[in-house]
Specification:
The protein is mostly beta strands and about 180 residues long. About 0% of the residues lie in helices and about 40% in strands. Strands 1-2-3-4 form a 4-stranded antiparallel β-sheet, with no helix packed on it. The radius of gyration is 18 Å and the shape is globular. It starts with a strand and ends with a strand.
Length: about 180
């Protein structure tokens, strides 16, 4: 679910046996207006992922990169993207801007005051400008399993673990990335 500031949008996939086997299990959406107590069903998307969502400029943005084509056995004839953009007011779905080269997964997005960040730094979509930015690699070396959260529209990265032999070294470092304004 995602809150637009005025309405609640519920996302799902059709419940069928062997989802994605014969056709892609695309994201569906319905919008609840608490002022009227009414639901309205939106057209089906052409994307696969149901979240995460960032409300930005009247739209909901799912920055999930990558996609799927059904594979060799159940090929769908084309690749369906994981993420996309929804205008809940009109029910219009649209594609994300093309990401920087070399990124097949991940994806994060930020707006003026909020953000959704993937579990590790990678391309970040500036929703106001409609362009992707690259976040510089963290000075973590071989550490992993750090926590990534949004602090307003900034990316806060905390901790992690570095494995040296059999004993883990728990890290208490903090990094903060601030998007270009």
């Amino acid at each position: 679910m995602a809150w637009t500031g005025r309405e609640l949008v519920l996302f799902d996939h059709e419940l069928v046996p062997d989802p994605g086997a014969r056709k892609p299990a695309v994201t569906r959406a319905a919008v609840f207006d608490p002022a009227t107590g009414e639901w309205r069903r939106l057209p089906d998307s052409q994307q696969l992922s149901t979240g995460p969502w960032l409300a930005a400029g009247g739209r909901l943005v799912n920055p999930s990169l990558g996609g799927a084509d059904g594979g060799q056995v159940g090929n769908w004839g084309r690749t369906y993207p994981n993420g996309g953009i929804l205008d809940p007011a009109t029910g219009t779905w649209s594609a994300l801007p093309d990401p920087p080269g070399g990124f097949e997964a991940g994806g994060s997005a930020y707006g003026a005051t909020s953000a959704v960040y993937a579990g590790q730094p990678g391309p970040v979509l500036n929703t106001a400008a409609g362009v992707w930015q690259n976040v510089a690699p963290l000075p973590l070396g071989d550490a992993n399993e750090h926590t990534v959260v949004a602090a307003g529209n900034r990316m806060l990265i905390f901790g992690g673990v570095r494995w040296g032999g059999t004993d883990p070294e728990l890290l208490a470092d903090v990094w903060l990335w601030t998007p270009d304004t």
